[in-house]
Amino acid sequence: MAAGQVVAAIGALTMARQTLRPDRCFLGTCAWSYDDWRDVFYPHALPRNRWLQFYARQFPAVEMDSSFYHVPPARTVEQWGDLTGPAFRFCPKLPKTLSHEKRLEDPAAEIAMMRQLADELGPRFGCALLQLPPSFHARPHEEKVLRKFLREWPDVIPLAVEFRDGSWDTPHSARILEERGVAWVWADTHAVGEEKHAGFGFLPVTARHLYVRLLGDFRTKYGPDGQETHRYGNILWARETALEHWAVKLRNHAEAEAIYVFANNHYEGMAVETMRRLALKLELPLSSRPAEGRQLELFGGKGLV
Predict the structure, then answer these.
(1) Is this model's pTM higher than 0.90 or not?
(2) What is the CATH number of the domain that holds 236?
(3) Domain count within the chain
(4) Do 260 and 160 touch, CB atoms closer than 8 A?
(5) 120-132: buried (b, 16+ CB within 10 Å) or exposed (e) per residue?
């Protein structure tokens, strides 16, 4: 290809690059309350009951991991509303009692809980997440209960489903979610050293909204004794190429009604830093609203309170 053709091709790609709308793209982390973030994200003197307030001034959304284990009391949810602005989004996980214990059978109680949570959060409710266990395989019985659950799920509450078993990675499975307008979770669980594969593979679009989870290599999270082996206060496994791939992937779907992207700590070692870097690649501004008359430092942890 001649030099002029190369320049023209690069120019065409630049022109074709889609811009994400900040009011539709919600970046955040999987939970917000980590002791390892004190001093490196949360100022040392900041009380824990103000961490969410600080977090919400930096990021537009958070994935609620706590709802996977227990139902948050109404008073707690009300306090969350007081600590976050109306543009902030919570994305709660459905309880493991439904996904891992009952395996989607008899979902009435969990659906009622999610309805109540949606009512309490109001416009701050983003998208519910159903994380299925690796033992939930694409077999006739599991497909039957999945279809039944999706029929019972309220259409007014956005939902995303994460399959942890590769047997679901088929067009047939994607159509099951597409028929109900439910998002197929794009989960990046590539091993360390395989970041070039991020953003590729079976990643169907099954709804008007997208849901991405940057989870990383599960083998880096726990040691042989089952204990966590790392402190999550800095980047440990930089996935520069992976973030570049995801940035391109997301730009190609800028027309989505809503895009939710969350990172776990063991994706790179510190989720808030991962999302800051991805936001820069997407040219999405992170919030810099002042608090108590002073500007919050995004990652310095100094000069606050």
Answers:
(1) no
(2) 3.20.20.410
(3) 1
(4) yes
(5) bbeebbbbbbbbb
303: amino acid identity, one letter: G
Phi–psi pair at 136, nearest 5 degrees: -90, 95
d(CA 217, CA 239): 11
Q: What is the pLDDT along the chain (305 residues), one digit of tens a residue?
A: 454 543 444 343 344 568 899 999 999 999 999 999 999 999 999 999 999 999 999 999 999 998 999 888 999 999 999 999 999 999 999 999 999 999 999 999 999 999 999 999 999 999 999 999 999 999 999 999 999 999 999 999 999 999 999 999 999 999 999 999 999 999 999 998 899 999 999 999 999 999 999 999 877 776 667 677 788 999 999 999 999 999 999 999 999 999 999 999 999 999 999 999 999 999 998 764 333 323 333 333 332 32
Residue 78 lies in a domain: yes
CB 112 within 8 A of CB 96: no
Residue 305 resides in a domain: no
**Is residue 301 a part of any domain in this protein?**
no
